[in-house]
């Protein structure tokens, strides 16, 4: 059985998922007041097909909830997860033009 861990890296502005210590993927975010804007999720193809994106996003959303923040899902994977998991609707905020502008500014 593999050891799977998720941790928040505030300096890199992302949550990382590791399998047996190896970086398997991440979901990147920006913070704006009390919103955490998720804008990109990536799982290394070598780790694909294991359901890791669901574990990663689920743990990230649990952390957002624990911090008292809300989530803005610019990332399609995070948006799809939120649609499938109604228990997180209370922390979901709509994607706004301001949120999209912030993401665009970071991505360049």
Automatic annotation (TrEMBL):
Domain N-acetyltransferase residues, every copy: 7-93
Recorded superkingdom: Bacteria
Pfam family, one: Acetyltransf_CG
PROSITE patterns: GNAT_YJDJ
Record-given protein name: N-acetyltransferase domain-containing protein
Annotated organism of origin: Actinokineospora iranica
Lineage of the organism: Bacteria, Bacillati, Actinomycetota, Actinomycetes, Pseudonocardiales
